[in-house]
Hints:
- 52% of the residues lie in helices and 13% in strands.
- By secondary structure, it is of the alpha/beta class.
- Helix 5 links the parallel strand 2 and strand 3.
- Helix 4 (60-73) packs across helix 11 (233-248), helix 12 (252-281) crosses helix 14 and helix 13 (284-294) packs antiparallel against helix 14 (300-311).
Amino acid sequence: MESSELVERLLRGERRALARLLTRVEDGSVDRLREVVRLLHPHTGSAMLVGLTGSPGVGKSTLTNALVAVWRGQGRRVAVLAVDPSSPFSGGALLGDRVRMQDHALDDGVFIRSMASRGHLGGLSWATPQALLVLDAAGFDIVLVETVGVGQAEVEIASTADTTVVALAPGMGDAIQAAKAGILEIADVFVVNKADREGAERTVRELREMQKLGHGDWLAPIVKTVASTNDGIEELADAIERHYAWLRDDGRLDGRRVERARVQLRELALGTVRDRFRQVGDGELVEELAASVAQRETDPYSAADRLVASLEE
Ligand SMILES: Nc1nc2c(ncn2[C@@H]2O[C@H](COP(=O)(O)OP(=O)(O)OP(=O)(O)O)[C@@H](O)[C@H]2O)c(=O)[nH]1
Ligand SMILES: [Mg+2]
């Protein structure tokens, strides 16, 4: 099916078009990706993008499940993208997540999908920004991305989401690790989950102490939760909402989006230049120039300039 028809169907609210477009951006060739992004882009920008990150097992999926219930209670449509660093599989929710999020399996206002991440160092899937475009265009009010906080992942999620939630659990020395990993800077909201366990209060205290050492314009609220019994989830949803409202004030959200677009533009442009360079970089001109540099007929800088100029020919 043509991408344009799939996008039309997506905009009409067809579930199957949604799943197919997600598969297309995950597996698609660059040309297809370009087309899909061009078609979708005008229809995006209204979803609230929430990132949820934290160490393995802190309760991210359980929190997500509980948050979805709160948001559904407010009548909002929610999409969840779970980026799994360990799984080579993609498409459809992973079994574990399916179990934890099964409360919403039959709800038409909820969509859950897992994606494999880029590699063992963590990080988002390269297709995450495009998948977010698809979900945004599909008309979800809230799109939540769950990602394990290892390696690059939390930095990437913070530069992708509007509001970043960092989840911790007591007793893992997490607060200190968080500070080391620079998580203090990326968190818009902290959630200390598993507050039914010993040490939750202490984790909260440690976070507060660290925040005293310095924070930006926004002081990230710290919310205690027991995700498995829904305790504190309303407060968590509320904290997320307050941050988003703050972002919308004074054009901060627009500012973030411009910044995000700037980063993306540079990356895409560099990628295109790199691709083109790869084509000329192995070509005849390189051989010619290399020989003439070796024979002292041309200096290396002038030769490099010729090579760069040939990119535009
Ligand atoms: N005691 C307690 N257990 C919890 C709580 N929240 C989640 N759990 C349990 O902790 C385990 C891990 O929860 P998940 O929601 O899968 O954690 P996760 O962060 O999504 O894990 P990964 O995606 O594998 O990184 C599960 O057995 C949950 O039932 C809580 O508030 N208290
Ligand atoms: Mg999970």
